[in-house]
Design brief:
Blueprint lengths: L2 H12 L15 E7 L5 H17 L2 E7 L4 H14 L3 E4 L4 H13 L4 E4 L11 E5 L1 H15 L4 E7 L5 H14 L6 E8 L4 H13 L7 E4 L2 H13 L6 E3 L5 H9 L5 E3 L2 H18 L6 E4 L2 E3 L15
Parallel strand pairs: 1-2, 1-3, 3-4, 4-5, 5-11, 6-7, 6-8, 8-9
Antiparallel strand pairs: 10-12
């Protein structure tokens, strides 16, 4: 299926077709806070760009851009400021779901509709909707690929994301769901957070490899940035045969998959999440139409064999 067709199917599935926004429709002017954990991560730069592009396409929307700077207090302060300013709505990927819950509850209590993307906040009643990827299934897809590549078993390093971040928790859970059922063959020889950061992926992998008598068969990571760091550590030791699996399908990851330095990554369709969330919020604010409370897209593994299914294929250089 082409990317264009995939996007059309996604929008139809969410039930937010743009045909509803006709030129004749009297548009209510809106101000929306769009917040991500940190624009130092390429993944969140893409999500922010997609949200802003959708707001511009819908028209009549002033966007307040919030860069959480990889700091929960900073992202919390941005939400609290937006509440005081009286924004019409919030689309947010919270850095830490539990730590961000009080600020999001304040927004809901103030009558400001909130749509979450990427990271779901379950303990805040009244959130309008969540549109994201099924991260447990994404982790399961990583595990299934490991079993396919190593049917007789494998040793695995697992680089986990930021503690408290729901994607980190769910992706690792999905990975274990698949491999723990065959624990006699698939051994986790090292697991540690690398905070979704490339530099941490490098340093944590260096530390792990330094304490091993033999290299692992696989390094799997909760995002692409961590696996990029791990690949650097492997190259420094000339361990180019170790299988590497990332998550997010960044353009850089797609290039590395194409060129063979990265075995696979996981596509979770962040553009579809971001655009769908803005659509859902605006449709509610302008037309009073409540969206589905939970929409989860199913991630897929991307290898050389199916690069054409990657959302950001056109951004490869």
């Amino acid at each position: 299926m082409s990317i264009k067709k995939r996007s059309s199917v996604l929008i139809g599935a969410i039930g937010l077709a743009l045909a509803a926004f006709t030129p004749a429709h009297a548009q209510k002017e809106l101000t929306i806070l769009e917040s991500v954990p940190g624009l130092n991560f390429p993944f969140f730069v893409h999500m922010m760009n997609q949200m802003k592009a959708e707001a511009e396409a819908l028209g009549g929307i002033t966007v307040i851009e919030s860069d959480g700077q990889d700091s929960t207090p900073k992202q919390t302060a941005d939400v609290e400021t937006a509440i005081v300013q009286g924004v019409d709505g919030i689309v947010i990927s919270p850095r830490e779901v539990d730590a961000m819950a009080p600020a999001l509850q304040q927004a809901v209590d103030a009558g400001i509709p909130v749509v979450t993307i990427d990271r779901r906040v379950d303990n805040v009643p009244g959130i309008l909707a969540h549109i994201g990827a099924d991260n447990v299934k994404g982790g399961e897809a990583q595990g299934e690929l490991i079993m396919k590549l190593f049917p007789d078993g494998a040793t695995i390093i697992n680089l986990q994301g930021t503690p408290g971040a729901s994607p980190a928790i769910d992706r690792s859970k999905g990975l274990h769901n698949v491999l723990d059922a065959h624990a006699d063959k698939y051994k986790f020889v090292f697991e540690q957070t690398a905070n979704f950061r490339r530099a941490d992926g490098l340093s944590v992998t260096e530390s792990a490899l330094g304490g091993m008598d033999s290299p692992p068969d696989v390094i799997v990571a909760g995002n692409d940035d961590m696996i990029f760091g791990a690949i650097e550590a492997l190259k420094a030791r000339n361990l180019t045969d170790v299988i590497t699996i990332g998550f997010d399908a960044l353009p850089e990851a797609l290039v590395q998959v194409r060129d063979g330095s990265l075995t696979a990554t996981v596509e979770q369709f962040p553009g579809g999440q971001s655009r769908g969330a803005v659509q859902a919020l605006v449709k509610y604010l302008r037309d009073g139409v409540k969206p589905e409370p939970l929409v989860l897209l199913t991630p897929i593994t991307i290898t050389k064999d199916n690069l054409d299914q990657a959302e950001r294929l056109s951004e490869m250089k």
